[in-house]
Amino acid sequence: MKKWTFRQILKVLNNYVVFFLTVGFAVSCCMILFLNILADSMGLQFDASNIAVAAKLTFGNVLLITFLFGTADFIRRKITVDRPVKQITEAAEKIMQGDFSVRVPSIHGAGTEGFNEIGKAINKMAEELSGTETLRTDFIANVSHELKTPLAVMGNYATMLQRPGITEEEKNEYAKAISEAARRLAQLITNILKLNKLENQQIFPQTQEFDLGEQLCESLLGFEDAWEAKNLEIETDIEDGVRIKSDPELLSLVWNNLISNAVKFTPDGGTIGLSLKTEGSSVIVQVRDTGCGMKPETGMHIFEKFYQGDTSHATQGNGLGLALVKRVMDILNGEIGVQSVYGEGSTFTVKFKR
After folding, report:
1. Which residue of 30, 126, 169, 353 is most buried, as measured by CB atoms within 10 A?
2. Can you give the CATH number for the domain in which 195 is found?
3. How many domains does one find in the chain?
4. 312 — pLDDT class (breaks 50, 70, 90)
């Protein structure tokens, strides 16, 4: 059983004194008024003994009424105020300690509607914090894993470079492997920084008017060496004169990632398609490939950070590209979707207002 503190006892006594004075004043005024009216209407005279008896009865009534009302108020406060406050405080303290599974129970009784609203808000906050903590933990684990891979490659090849008697050809091969791992590491860090800025809304769209078809062609030509090395066929259907008002830098990030993935996952001799058309006030861009495609369960998670559905391609990316694309489209109030057939290819569709 919880022991009462001196401050709590003093608070109860203070409340009782306030009740006593209030009730005493009210009852005394009523009694004086009643006696005056009674004396005037009936012509009575009250002597000292009558007044003393009346005063004693009044004082007794005040004590009784004060005790009853004070007790009732004490119980009411315990049920409708102190208990809800204690539950909410305990839940808040657990949340501060990192326990996001705690929930404030529903509080029943008259006058508890406000506490229930506070409890719902705290429960919602705990739920959101729990989800954020899970994402943070997963993010750190994924980043750690992705950082370890290129660092391990660089360390292994650097060790091999130090071996005596290696040929010039082997030196070049090992140096090339280190350079490629360093490039992947730099790209990973760059994407992490971009995604962090996008998710924390530290990047704001810089709107200007530009030719979207021209931008798409420039992005496609940026991968010319890659598609020529794989002897890919390029099919384009770009509507002329499509000018939009948007952020060209953010949209360029979208096209570069989608085209890069199309080139990456399309086998030698395959086909990549890029189309642009308008429908009313909307613009629709599609990037199509005849690559490995995706299973339905993969397509459900393809825009999540670090998700890589095809483990055979894990060394070619870090699972952040499409997460960046999705976040950019959210910022620009656009939409992105994917249709894919496993083993046949995928089509990414981007739609937004002009």
Report:
1. 126
2. 1.10.287
3. 3
4. very low
